């Protein structure tokens, strides 16, 4: 009787392990299928954030969000990147802190070379991709949407002739036939590299 019980228990364990490994294989194959449908270039470049603080960028952040230097805690990172092929780089700024962030992400600005605001964004998750495809001569921006109750998606932000859209969660999402090739920015681990603090 004891031998029969042991045999039944052993058989039950083998069936359980087999079903677990099948479900793992199934989820793995689904992940591979999803990755196949996302047509990202395998050789996408990475552009690191600047390593020198920039008072012009800091002043633009404070002005855009009506914040006070030394009072409102704000951290930022920025990248100089040419978005409209005029050989003059814009400043793409990622900013976060209690006044600028939530569960849906942080905030971002695009500034021209004179630190004038071109666009601002809410619910920003990093990293961000600057795609080589253009709309009205400005590169499309690819942003991930997640958190804050939003349905996870990958949004395409297109220039409308004056600015980019404010909220990525309200924009068209990446389709299976959209090919993404460009430059990935803000790839640093924010929890370890907080960028610059405005003081």
UniProtKB/TrEMBL annotation:
It comes from the Bacteria. Keywords: Signal. The keyword Signal applies. Residues 1-23 form the signal peptide. This is Lipoprotein. It comes from Cetobacterium somerae ATCC BAA-474.
């Amino acid at each position: 009787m004891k031998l029969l019980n042991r045999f039944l228990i052993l058989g039950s364990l083998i069936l359980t392990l087999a079903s677990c490994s099948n479900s793992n294989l199934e989820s793995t194959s689904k992940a591979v299928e999803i990755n196949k449908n996302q047509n990202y270039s395998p050789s996408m470049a990475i552009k690191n954030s600047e390593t020198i603080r920039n008072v012009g960028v800091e002043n633009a952040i404070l002005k855009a969000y009506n914040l006070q230097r030394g009072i409102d805690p704000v951290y930022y990172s920025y990248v100089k990147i040419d978005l409209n092929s005029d050989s003059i780089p814009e400043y793409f700024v990622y900013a976060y802190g209690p006044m600028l962030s939530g569960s849906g992400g942080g905030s971002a600005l695009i500034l021209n070379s004179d630190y004038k605001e071109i666009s601002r964004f809410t619910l920003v998750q990093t990293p961000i991709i600057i795609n080589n495809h253009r709309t009205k001569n400005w590169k499309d921006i690819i942003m991930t949407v997640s958190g804050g109750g939003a349905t996870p998606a990958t949004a395409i932000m297109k220039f409308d002739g004056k600015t980019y859209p404010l909220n990525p969660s309200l924009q068209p999402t990446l389709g299976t036939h959209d090919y993404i090739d460009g430059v990935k920015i803000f790839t640093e681990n924010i929890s370890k590299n907080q960028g610059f603090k405005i003081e």
